[in-house]
Amino acid sequence: YGARTVFRSAIVIFTLGSILCGLSTSLADFVLYRIIQGMGGAMMVPVGRLVILRSIPKADLVTALAWLTVPALIGPVLGPPLGGFITTYFDWRLIFFINVPIGILGVILATRFIENVREVDVPPLDLKGLVLSGLGLAGVVFGFAVMGEEMVPLWVAGAVTAIGVVALAFYVAHARRTPHAVLDLGLLKLPTFRAGVVGASIFRVGIGALPFLLPLMLQISFGLSPLASGLLTFASSAGALIMKTTAAPIIRRFGFRRILVVNSLLSAAFIAVNALFTPETPHLVISVVLLIGGFFRSLEFTALNAIAYADVEQADMSRATSFASVAQQISISMGVAVAGLVLEVMRGMRGSETLILSDFTPAFLIVAAISALSVFSFLRLPKDAGAEMAGRKRPDHNDTLPDPRGEVQPNP
Fold this sequence. Notes:
Blueprint: H1 3-23, H2 27-55, H3 61-68, H4 70-89, H5 94-97, H6 99-113, H7 127-146, H8 154-176, H9 191-221, H10 226-243, H11 247-254, H12 256-273, H13 283-307, H14 317-350, H15 357-373, H16 375-379, H17 387-390, E1 400-402, E2 408-410
Antiparallel strand pairs: 1-2
Helix pairs in contact: 1-2, 1-6, 2-3, 2-14, 3-13, 4-10, 7-8, 7-14, 9-10, 9-13, 9-14, 9-15, 10-13, 11-12, 12-13, 12-15, 14-15
């Protein structure tokens, strides 16, 4: 249908979901409308990224992808204080109605600036793969999310998770014998794409939990208002926004592999530091920690978003962006689910119905440890991974050729 058509449709669906969320009268309605809103948002990300990947030379992609995420960072920068202000002094429904004029403006700008680029050869829709992967991913995420919650029995959560795992196993078998699978597992043979998907997913499981845990701790355990909590968490997004202007030079100077390895550990460390906060911790100290942590996490995200496409051919870009976007959304959801599960386990062990500050300590430490595990994926990258994209010269491997005896001979 073309990039412009799909992108505009995604904005319309997201805006419609926002209106319905603002008009919802029950929790069930709200959850349903949030699903609709999420569908629209999920459609926007891969299309926007695909337009950039197909129109920008690889040497400029790091800078382009960094700037692509700047609008997405403005929301987290303005969202917490603005949302806290609206919730504290007005009605929470206004948070969703704000998206209406933004959505209308987005449709106008997409019509004006995005070309309706279409695929030349469109493969048939992998309907079986779509059903299996959708059922599997939804089952695993939902199962983890409700495990330990009182809304469903434990055996139901376990059964849903098991169904999801089985469906994913069937999908893997299906994808291996299907030339145009909805999620092309063959792309994982590329070391850079594998690091940008598998390693990034592990990293994002930990990072995805932070926006869930931090406001919850500040409001429940510290007793802060939504506005005060939003003003504190604003620092993290501000640090991420500052980083975008320096990401490309940093990656060019140190290379993808070194950045991903060192920065993943630094980012995990700054998540763990949140476990040390108490109501007596000065707000200035909390803001500085969140600012620096946001800087490092944003640098990691920029590198991961770029390295995934370093060795992907143009013909495979569409499938690669879809695969990476699905993995990103699922890993962030898993992060929230894992954090929620840890909190519920800690609360249950105390036999209490309310959360206290000590419940958050293991939650922060566990998600930080999960993020740190991503380093093993990044260590497997070659030292010159993504050199062309980073603007670094690759070693010239054509100066010598191995001979059958294992000795190196000059290249004629």
